[in-house]
Amino acid sequence: MTWIERYFYTPTRGQKLLAYMLLPVSLIYGGIATLKRALAPYEDLEIPIISIGNLVVGGSGKTPFILELGKILEPLHVGVVSRGYGRTSKGLVVVSERGHLLVEQREAGDEAFLCASRLKASVVVSADRRAGILRAKELGAQVILLDDGFRFNFKKLNIVLKPERAPYFDFVLPSGAYREFLRGYKQADLLLQEGKDYTRQVWVSSPSPRMLLVTAIANPSRLDSYLPEVVGKLYFKDHAYFDQQTLQKAFRAHKATSLLVTTKDAVKLQDCSLPLSILELKLQIQAQHLQNICDYVCQIQAGLQV
Fold it and tell me: What one-character DSSP code corresponds to residue 227?
């Protein structure tokens, strides 16, 4: 477990003291975040927008949720819009058009590239989400899946995911793991609890006898309950790129027969000479929630045609 994971989820006595000392900063941070969202102008971009967000920093299943929705909505031309964390490019970039990749992984960011690789969608990355949505519309998108869009005040269906593992404190950053005060959950149209409203199905493709876990995701210990037996664990910073020499050295030191990586990590290891085992993930979303999402899309589309 990394220091920051322990701080947010199983803090030591010293870390608890630090969290309380930082509470005044957290109150200011939470107040600014709430105020910014409250003052953001409301805008109807005249396309069904499904926002998938959360209040907790780090992974809560947003990308696999988008992948699952993207496949279900595939009869439509789906647009996926995200910031593109970890990318080397600037500004707005069209990553794929109707499933055809247009740029390399480094220009897209790992999560956006994963979506572009697995969906017959048009994927756009942009810090300006409004510009990203409008570009996806220009490409012919009929519905938008907006990654991490909770704080944007567009006309949209606000899906907020609650991870199964809750932070130790109900504090906002930097005292806790929340981006906003918990009352922000009341703004969700669909508040979905992991383990109840959606569950994870995990399996390993191309397994080998001695797998070395290598990952650059937030809160990597959340993988522990899904892991098969591994010979070691090598953690990198979230969204980090992998140093091939470091991987080669660790591979030899552990006498590994493959690197065990997540799908998000695998897109950054396409040129890796070492054998890969992939920790595959699929979300099972309750049928009633999927029906609510599809009903929303149909309702908005019908309104636009009037």
Answer: -
